[in-house]
Amino acid sequence: MGKVIAIAGNTVREVVRDKVFYILVFFAVLLIAVSKALGWISMEQDVKVMKDFSIAAINLFVLLITIFLGTTLVYKEIDKRTIYTILSKDVGRWQFVLGKYFGLLAAASMCMAGMTAVFIVYLLVMGGGVEASLFLAVGGMLLELMLITSVSLLFSGLTSPVLSAFITFCFFLLGHSVEVLRKFVEEFEFQGLEPMANAIYYLFPNLENCNFKMYVGSGTLPEAAHVLWAAAYAAGYSAALIGITLVIYRRKDF
Amino acid sequence: MKAIEIENLAKVYRRGFWGTRFTALSGLSLSVEEGEIYGFIGANGAGKTTTFKILMGIAKPTSGSARILGTDISARGARMKAGYLPEESYYYNYLTARELLRFYGRLQGMRGRDVAARSGAILESVGLAESADARLGEFSKGMRQRFGIAQALVNDPAVLFLDEPLTGLDPPGRKGLRDLILDLKRRGKTVFFSSHILSDAEAICDRIAVLDRGGLVAEGPIGKLLGSKVKSYELQISGAQPDAVKDLGIGVGIRSDAGIVHVTLDGTADPDAVIDRVRSAGGKVVALIPVRETLEEFFMRSGPSGAHGGLGGFGGGA
Question: Is CATH 3.40.50.300 the classification given to domain B2-224?
Answer without folding.
Answer: yes
